Automatic annotation (TrEMBL):
Keywords: Membrane, Transmembrane, Transmembrane helix. The keyword Phosphoprotein does not apply. Residues 368-406 are annotated as: Disordered. It is a multi-pass membrane protein. This is Uncharacterized protein. The chain crosses the membrane at residues 56-79, 95-114, 126-146, 176-199, 211-231, 252-273, 293-313. It comes from Periconia digitata. It is found in: Membrane. SMART domains: Solute_trans_a. Residues 378-399 have a biased composition (Basic residues). GO terms for cellular component: membrane.
Length: 406
């Protein structure tokens, strides 16, 4: 009996050990499965020509290429008009940077349709281009404010140490400044990280597991984009009385709508593709739907945005007048070089916002920045007094004393 009881106990222990090992192996397999990127179903029926002898991929490549050529020509004309009427280099270099977003997006849409397998490597280019445009838009708004009467004090508050409102003062302005300009380095870093994780098979767009980089990059990208957009809106809201006559909301929608539409369209297509509402057909492969289709749609929208952005950023306020009141500050080649040289944006974290604003204010006073046409059609030029010390250093004066924020 003792042997039988011992045998039964050993059997029970063996069963428990087996069950525990099975449970542990199931847990390990679940953990391992979360670390494995799920394979997307890319199978479809044999392909047949979409139009004539052209496949959908070839047809989409031709369409986006033609659209890109139109955008390049339209924006080249717009830039040349600004370059030949370069009467306000401070504002117009920002304008040229903003309108360059259209050919930038058109070019990469064409590349992503043409080389679909490299689409995920190139998609970060859209965010980087938008980051340059958003930062240039912030500096453009700062220039409009500085060119108005009392603009320097209006931008920073009467006393930067003790602002009257939460939306005034040096600390508030610095928050807005860095919230907007952080988008340039972060978008570039995220683009590089995306390429690295794609190459190392740790990106996995088909999974939202924290084991892969896709979910982290998506969340961080969403946060930094919202920060940048909100920063521009906060400055506009604070200086609405000064900026509204410049149709800033139209200007903002003309270029930011490009990326906004792309996000919405890509999201809808990915949802439909993931739920098998749309699937590969005899004309469309999986890559055609996932990469080619959203970029084709965005590429075809670019000619409309090119026309809208030309109307939103007209050259008429900067054109030479018969009375000689507006003469070019530099030649067209200088205008293009200054617009392409974005070191003033990239160095913002080193130089700080006040250094750039002071330079901008100095440029306004030297070049007579474009006036803000307000009530009664009166032209208001940049205000503020500037004194020079013997060694040539500049300082802003208020009642005979040096401003504490300079």
């Amino acid at each position: 009996m003792a042997d039988l009881s011992l045998l039964k106990q050993q059997s029970m222990n063996a069963v428990l050990l087996f069950a525990r090992s099975r449970h542990d192996s199931d847990k390990d397999s679940d953990k391992d499965s979360k670390k494995i990127c799920p394979q997307e179903n890319t199978t479809g029926p044999p392909l047949v020509p979409f139009v004539g002898n052209l496949s959908f991929h070839s047809f989409a490549t031709i369409l986006t290429g033609a659209s890109a050529v139109f955008c390049f020509l339209a924006i080249a004309i717009a830039i040349s008009r600004h370059a030949f009427n370069y009467t306000n280099r401070i504002q117009q270099r920002q304008v040229i940077r903003i309108i360059l977003l259209v050919p930038w997006v058109s070019l990469f849409c064409f590349l992503m349709v043409w080389q679909e397998e490299a689409g995920e490597y190139l998609v970060g280019s859209l965010d980087f281009g938008c980051a340059i445009a958003l930062s240039a838009f912030l500096l453009l708004m700062c220039d409009y404010v500085l060119a108005s009467p009392g603009g320097y004090q209006s931008l920073l508050g009467d006393d930067p140490g003790r602002p009257k409102e939460k939306t005034q003062g040096l600390a508030w302005f610095k928050r807005v400044w860095y919230m907007s300009l952080q988008f340039i380095p972060t978008s570039l870093i995220l683009w590089v990280v995306t390429c690295i994780t794609l190459a190392s098979d740790t990106y996995c767009a088909a999974s939202n597991s924290p084991h892969f980089a896709h979910i982290w990059i998506t969340v961080i990208k969403g946060v930094v984009t919202v920060w940048a957009v909100l920063a521009d809106f906060r400055l506009y809201k604070q200086q609405k009385a000064v900026l509204k006559p410049h149709n800033m909301l139209l200007k903002f929608a003309a270029f930011k709508g490009i990326i906004g539409l792309n996000v919405i369209q890509t999201l809808i297509i990915n949802i439909l593709l993931g739920s098998s509402v749309i699937r590969p057909t005899q004309h469309l492969t999986y890559e055609d739907i996932k990469v080619g289709l959203p970029n084709l749609i965005l590429g075809l929208e670019m000619p409309l945005f090119s026309i809208l952005i030309i109307f939103a950023f007209p050259v008429s306020p900067y054109q030479k007048r018969g009375d000689g009141s507006a003469t070019p500050a530099a030649g067209p080649l200088v205008a293009v070089v200054e617009a392409l040289n974005i070191t003033d944006l990239l160095s913002c974290f080193v130089r700080g916002p006040m250094r750039l604003v002071r330079d901008q204010q100095w440029g306004i006073m030297r070049q007579q920045s474009m006036p803000l046409e307000g009530g009664g059609g009166k032209a208001h030029r940049g205000s503020g007094r500037r004194s020079h010390s013997r060694n040539g250093r500049r300082s802003h004066s208020r009642g005979g004393r040096r401003d504490p924020w300079v």
